[in-house]
Amino acid sequence: MAAASTVPLPRGQAQEQRARLAAASSQAAGEISVSIRGITKSFGTTTALDAANLDIRRGEFFSLLGPSGCGKTTLLRIIGGFETPTSGDLLIAGRSALGDLPYRRRTNMVFQHGALFPHLNVAQNIAFGLEMKRLPKPDIAKKVEEALALVRLTGYGDRKVDQLSGGQRQRIAMARALVNDPEVLLLDEPLGALDLQLRLQMQEELRRLHRAIGGTFIFVTHDQGEAITMSDRIAVMNAGRIQQVGTPREVYERPATKFVAEFMGHSNFYEAVVASRDATDSGILTVGGQPFPTRLPADAAVGRTVFVALRYEKVDVVPGSTGAAGGPALAGTLEEETYMGSFVRRRVDLGSMGVIVSDAANTGRQVAMRPGDPVQVRWELDSATVLLN
Ligand SMILES: Nc1ncnc2c1ncn2[C@@H]1O[C@H](COP(=O)(O)OP(=O)(O)OP(=O)(O)O)[C@@H](O)[C@H]1O
Ligand SMILES: [Mg+2]
To answer: 171 pLDDT exceeds 90?
Structure first.
């Protein structure tokens, strides 16, 4: 029985309110939209996916990132229902979806080489899936108009596909997927074929679409910069295995494996031995007999052999042999300086430790240094990542 003060809402409004409440509670609970449970996929002797586990939350912009051939498309095709896993399970909105054909799933895919139908115009391309579902004509027309507006191509319905630019085609491919109101949008390198300017513009558009629609986006890319700027979370993949899952910051700043450290930007790598550590978890590694100050993970005991990764942009090079301000510094010799436009790359010879590379923003305030000059090299204690594997 309703409380006396409750005025029943008209049907439409009540539905809207329920949807809002459901959305709010699913956000609060971090509800899982897509769950990959131990999925392996073999093609003959090739293992495209090797026991992959992954939970993607509702409403997330989630990226699958990795080099060519690592299994990104295979994973996306399994979620969309275009490929069946060799073993493992796939849950969409909490229930196994493996038995469902693609069009029965709440997923829609924008394919890596997603050609539009050349003999249909833009509106017919977008309407295709709705016509398959036999929706009434006026409903289709309305949905097509809404989808065109979403991708900012209102008025393009009558155009032929070959009268569109590359970026416009990509947006139509997205409109064709969006028109089906998918709960999960699967995007397989949708910006891969675009030039840099258009790519950056389309990245913005995609973020805007995600905010406007609020569904789960699973986005495939092999471009780490793109994954970092676009995503709520990223799964980094290599050779069919998921190496790390985390926010862009976590994956970039705290790579879990050597592969991730290498793939996400440029790092100096050294094999090292833990020489000492103190109560604050800072310590000294020895690299080629030289001291390397760093923060250490709890399980890096004295005497243990580790890998240490230090990103190029975390390394400061200052001229001179003494008097560097703050923190410990290592003395070396500048080997090479390369102008890279927005930054300057320097290679410094650190004697028995080997070479260290530094990238410094091109602020226009640099002190000139020449090859052969004595320099000092510094980094913050927290900048290096010590890997035990
Ligand atoms: N239908 C298939 N038959 C045989 N091997 C396949 C098939 N599809 C994919 N593979 C293999 O599975 C592995 C993963 O392929 P996948 O297309 O998932 O890679 P990807 O990460 O999407 O690469 P790219 O960035 O180049 O698109 C590759 O070694 C590929 O050759
Ligand atoms: Mg692919």
So the answer is: no
Give the pLDDT score at 63.
Answer: 98
Contact 358, 383 (CB under 8 A): no
Q: Which residues of 30-61 are buried (b: 16+ CB within 10 A; e: fewer)?
A: ebbbbbbbebebeeeeebbbbebebbbbbbbb
Contact between 80 and 21 under an 8 Å Cβ cutoff? The reply is: no
Which numbered atom of ligand 1 lies nearest the CA of 222?
Answer: 25
Tokens of 47: 């293992």
Q: Which ligand is nearest to the CA of 64?
A: 1
Asked if 372 contacts 283 with a C-beta cutoff of 8 angstroms, the reply is: no
Q: Which of 236, 192, 306, 266 is nearest to 62 (CA)?
A: 236
Give the number of the ligand closest to the Cα of residue 52: 1
Read off the tokens for 26: 């699913």
Tokens, residue 262 = 């290498």
* Contact (CB, 8 A) for 40 and 85: yes
pLDDT digits (tens, 9 = 90+) for 211-260: 988 899 999 999 999 999 999 999 999 999 999 999 999 999 999 999 99
Q: Which domains does the chain have, with CATH numbers?
A: 30-259 (3.40.50.300), 266-387 (2.40.50.100)
Report the SS3 class of residue 349: strand
86 lines ligand 1 (CB under 6 A): no
Residue of 40, 41, 50, 73 to mutate, ligand 1, most atoms within 8 A of C-beta? 73
